Amino acid sequence: MRFVRRTYSDVSAGAGDEDPLAGIANLFDVSVAFIVALLIALFALFSSGSLLDPNSKMTIVKQSDNGDMEIITKDGPKIKVEKVTDKKMAGQGERLGVAYRLGNGQVIYVPESALPARSGPKAAQP
User: Over the stretch 28-79, which tens digit does the pLDDT of each residue have?
Assistant: First the structure.
């Protein structure tokens, strides 16, 4: 007969220790881990790791859906963003000379006063 009489005091004592919000805390932990995994995947996808490297140099040309273009240049820790536009700048300017790029990549600037006088269509060819 000792199995017939059971006391339910042990069962009811453990029910009060369970926190109903413990499941929500676990969901929060899972969401934080998911967000970190997404950030790592995005950096790997776009190869943006070099943007975080303080010694890297890179140039990115980006065009948006509406046609605006940006040139993003990173030289060490400095990042410079330039917007490309087809608008003409205000004011007048004057031609100072001509720059030529040689086969080895060297650029030579020739001032306007050192250029020969222009005559005919052959003068336009360098």
Answer: 889 999 999 998 888 777 766 666 677 878 888 888 888 788 888 888 888 8
Instruction: Please tell me whether residue 14 adopts helix, strand or coil conformation.
Output: helix
CB 37 within 8 A of CB 45: no
User: How far lies 24's CA from each of 21, 28, 36, 87, in Å?
Assistant: 5, 6, 19, 55
What DSSP line would sit under 67-82, residue for residue?
A: S-EEEEEEETTEEEEE
Q: Say how far apart CA 54 and CA 74 lie, in whole Å.
A: 9
- Give 80's strand partners: 73
The answer to whether 81 and 72 have CB atoms below 8 angstroms apart is yes
Cβ 108 vs Cβ 100: under 8 Å: yes
